[in-house]
Write a structure and sequence with these properties.
The chain is built from 11 helices and 22 strands. The chain folds into 3 domains: 2-255, no CATH class; 260-345, Transcriptional regulatory protein pf0864 domain like (Alpha-Beta Plaits, 2-Layer Sandwich); 348-407, no CATH class. The protein is an alpha+beta fold.
């Protein structure tokens, strides 16, 4: 799978979560489990809601830090507004390590926070262990990063890419005072990624969003190889931008089967003065050479209307001279044309039934195909069912088993 991010309006932790949930809504039911795993189920709430800005529809996610006195009144949860406490990087790492999260999710969340801490340490001239997060250290931001780590891991083992990122401009107020946009730590985290100024001021990429991008290490631009679009989602941010939707688009792709590439040698010549019996023996000898991949013979008419056989041999480039020498020894030809060419090969594998019948399975761009090995096809002739029908049945059985294995 491949995840491509298109930060039309920008990127923040909640926009990232919203975009992925919009693309894969079935993952939403797992988010409360993540909060319980880090012990924040009574301190932080997370909710996804459908959102329509009058032009586009998508999802918006709200991760809210709750007060100790939060109660259910009239069916609504009441949140509070207060100054966030700060947390040291070492405390957050300990919280994640001691959590009930799976190890891969733990490691992703810790890596995102580590990248944040390294950027903050460089900006403020301190040790990474001494970094104290303020806005990013709030419980809602801890939940943001943990949920993002869970969603990334839920995708399996995808590759990532990102479109050009709006850098924003102006000033923001934070615990450190007034800072330029992008904030210094954010700017460090965006190093190596494509930025542009679209003329719209404000903070377009938050430190959390930049840390997630830095963790993903995405390629620049859209998919460069053949891919199939399998899903997309739109995550809305809370700010309103003039003339531009404040959204992050997430696009999910599956990779088309990538054929393998190598180089082979091709050998060609014609024979018109060798008996068919002797030529057949010579070509069989050539086929059995370890360096020879295939031998083809075609009836042709040469000069003076002489009937002849045109021979084409495919072989390993490293054994060119040995194959040429064998052609001279096994046939009456006086010359061999030879050249190298590129070859594309589909991924394939061989499965075997208990009776020894081998099935060749190939992965084509449109799906899998299967067929019985030619040497084993002769064995089916002695059985009751016609061998072509039984070969089809065996191939289909092997193909369905292979597809189930790929999905599991």
């Amino acid at each position: 799978m491949h995840l491509h991010l298109d930060p039309v309006g920008g990127l923040s932790g909640d926009m990232f979560i919203a975009a992925l949930l919009d693309a894969q809504p079935e993952l939403e039911q797992q988010l409360p489990h993540c909060l319980r795993a880090i012990g924040l189920e009574h301190k932080v709430s997370v909710s996804r809601s459908d959102h329509n800005n009058g032009i586009l529809t998508g999802s918006r996610v709200q991760v809210t830090e709750l007060s100790e006195s939060t109660q259910e009144q009239d069916g609504h949860a009441h949140t509070h507004s207060h100054t966030h406490q700060h947390h040291h990087f070492s405390d957050i790492r300990k919280l994640l390590l001691n959590s009930a999260l799976t190890e891969p999710v733990q490691q992703r969340a810790i890596d995102i926070f580590t990248r944040l801490a390294q950027a903050e340490a460089q900006v403020h001239g301190m040790l990474v262990e001494d970094v104290a997060f303020h806005e990013v250290g709030a419980l809602d931001s801890i939940a943001d990063i943990t949920l993002a780590a869970y969603l990334i891991e839920a995708l399996g083992n995808p590759s990532f890419s990102v479109s050009t990122i709006p850098m924003g401009s102006g000033r923001i107020n934070c615990q450190h005072g007034t800072l330029p946009v992008p904030a210094p730590a954010t700017l460090l985290l965006l190093r190596g990624l494509p930025l542009f100024d679209d003329g719209i001021p404000g903070e377009r990429v938050t430190p959390t969003g930049a840390a997630i991008l830095n963790h993903l290490q995405p390629a620049v631009g859209g998919p460069v190889t053949g891919m199939t679009l399998t899903g997309s989602g739109v995550g809305f941010g809370t700010a309103t931008l003039p003339g531009l939707p404040n959204i992050l688009r997430a696009m999910l792709f599956t990779l088309l089967p990538q054929s393998q590439h190598d180089e082979i040698s091709v050998f060609e010549f014609e024979v018109d003065d060798q008996t068919p019996e002797d030529l057949a023996v010579g070509l069989q000898y050539l086929r059995e050479l370890p360096a020879v991949l295939d031998v083809l013979a075609t009836a042709v008419t040469t000069k003076k209307n002489r009937l002849a056989q045109s021979i084409r041999i495919l072989g390993q480039p490293a054994q060119e001279q040995n194959i040429i020498n064998a052609c001279y020894e096994q046939t009456t030809t006086l010359g061999v044309r030879h050249y190298r060419c590129a070859r594309s090969i589909l991924p394939r594998r061989e499965v075997q039934f208990d009776d020894g019948t081998r099935i060749k399975i190939a992965q084509r761009p449109s799906g899998y195909t299967a067929k019985v090995d030619m040497d084993d096809l002769a064995k089916l002739q002695q059985q009751h069912a016609p061998r072509t029908a039984q070969a089809h049945e065996l191939a289909n059985t092997a193909l369905q088993k292979h597809i189930r294995e790929q999905k599991s």
